[in-house]
């Protein structure tokens, strides 16, 4: 019996197995190319330039305390500073930054890369606001300045007079006012502790609190930093000799608690026996009359050696000093002449605090109101 002849193979034909292998290889190659493209896109999304800011050159983003990683990514995406929240989440997890992200206010530059944004949030490069407290402000005025900052929260009560160090302080948006105030008080305590330990021996006061009280008077008597040591020396010389300080700002504090008086000191106020009237009391008033700055505190704790006991305005914004009452009276006469040439006849005991002319003397430097 003869065998049936086999059908001849078609030229170029592939077996099913070979076709399957080719299909698998083709799919793998396609997937590899797609994977490479995705990897390139992810890398570009992470390292490349980010979106353009919606307005201006910066975008402000607030990340609330307690935010989860997905919430942070969603916030950044919603604000238009990153292109993909999932990529941000993955990058934070892969790099280990996810456990170190910090809440706060961030300013993100237009076109900033996702990598730089993640690094800034990981490093806590939040926006720092600042408040400047000028020397010579009362504690109540400092609390009012804090209350005027709408980017702070909470309520702060006025601390004791003289317990704040006037400087510039940084804070975060949303920080509690009492926390900022506490930093101001801590800064004063640290400064006083440092300067007190190096104070000049033989000073006519025995406690840091008394030093701050005298420094506050020095602060209010002159607005010129270069004069503070000399003014401090005058008051210390008077204390050593048992002379009254006769400082006009102390009278004003007793009347207005440090607010501008808006007029001259009246004769009745000059003669009134109040705890703050250093024309009527011996020694220092019971508390500081303001918050003195670093220079005034340093001047009181290390004053220059002088014999001067008096000073009065010199007409140029500063003061002229004297060691004797005769010299001082001559200086007062010159100041009165300057006032007359300016058309301001003497009608008040002294100018407002912060202006030149408040002088410790044995008698009022100018005529007082009746």
TrEMBL record:
Its main location: membrane. It is found in: Cell inner membrane. It is an enzyme of class 4 (lyase). Its EC number is 4.2.2.29. Residues 345-360 have a biased composition (Low complexity). It comes from the Bacteria. Signal peptide: none annotated. The record marks 221 as: Important for catalytic activity. InterPro entries: MLTG-like. Keywords: Cell inner membrane, Cell membrane, Cell wall biogenesis/degradation, Lyase, Membrane, Transmembrane, Transmembrane helix. Pfam families: YceG. The keyword ATP-binding does not apply. Residues 345-370 are annotated as: Disordered. It is a single-pass membrane protein. It catalyses: a peptidoglycan chain = a peptidoglycan chain with N-acetyl-1,6-anhydromuramyl-[peptide] at the reducing end + a peptidoglycan chain with N-acetylglucosamine at the non-reducing end. The chain crosses the membrane at residues 20-44. Belongs to the transglycosylase MltG family. Functions as a peptidoglycan terminase that cleaves nascent peptidoglycan strands endolytically to terminate their elongation. This is Endolytic murein transglycosylase. The gene is mltG.
């Amino acid at each position: 019996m003869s065998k049936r002849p086999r059908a001849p193979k078609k030229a170029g034909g592939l077996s099913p197995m070979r076709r399957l292998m080719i299909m698998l290889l083709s799919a793998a190659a396609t997937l590899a190319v797609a994977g490479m493209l995705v990897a390139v896109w992810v890398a570009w999304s992470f390292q490349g330039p980010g979106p353009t800011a919606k307005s201006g050159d910066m975008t402000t983003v607030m990340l609330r305390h307690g935010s989860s990683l997905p919430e942070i990514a969603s916030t950044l995406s919603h604000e238009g500073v990153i292109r993909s929240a999932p990529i941000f989440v993955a990058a934070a997890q892969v790099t280990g930054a996810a456990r170190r992200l910090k809440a706060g206010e961030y300013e993100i530059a237009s076109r900033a890369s996702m990598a730089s944004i993640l690094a800034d949030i990981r490093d806590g490069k939040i926006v720092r606001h600042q408040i400047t407290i000028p020397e010579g402000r009362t504690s109540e005025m400092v609390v009012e300045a804090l209350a005027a900052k709408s980017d702070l929260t909470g309520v702060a009560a006025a601390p004791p007079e003289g317990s704040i160090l006037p400087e510039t302080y940084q804070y975060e948006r949303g920080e509690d006012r009492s926390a900022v105030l506490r930093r101001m008080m801590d800064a004063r305590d640290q400064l006083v502790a440092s300067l007190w330990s190096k104070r000049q021996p033989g000073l006519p006061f025995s406690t840091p609190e008394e030093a701050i009280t005298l420094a506050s008077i020095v602060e209010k008597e002159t607005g010129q930093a270069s004069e503070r040591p000399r003014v401090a020396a005058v008051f210390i010389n008077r204390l050593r000799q048992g002379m009254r300080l006769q400082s006009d700002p102390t009278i004003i504090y007793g009347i207005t608690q440090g607010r501008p008086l808006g007029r001259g000191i009246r004769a009745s106020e000059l003669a009134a026996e109040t705890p703050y009237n250093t024309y009527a009391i011996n020694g220092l008033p019971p508390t500081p009359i303001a918050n003195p700055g670093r220079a005034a505190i340093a001047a009181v704790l290390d004053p220059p050696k002088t014999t001067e006991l008096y000073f009065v305005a010199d007409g140029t914004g500063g003061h002229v000093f004297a060691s004797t009452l005769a010299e001082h009276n001559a200086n007062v006469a010159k100041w009165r002449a300057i006032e007359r040439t300016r058309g301001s006849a003497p009608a008040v005991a002294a100018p407002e605090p912060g202006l030149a002319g408040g002088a410790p003397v044995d008698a009022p430097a100018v005529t007082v109101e009746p």
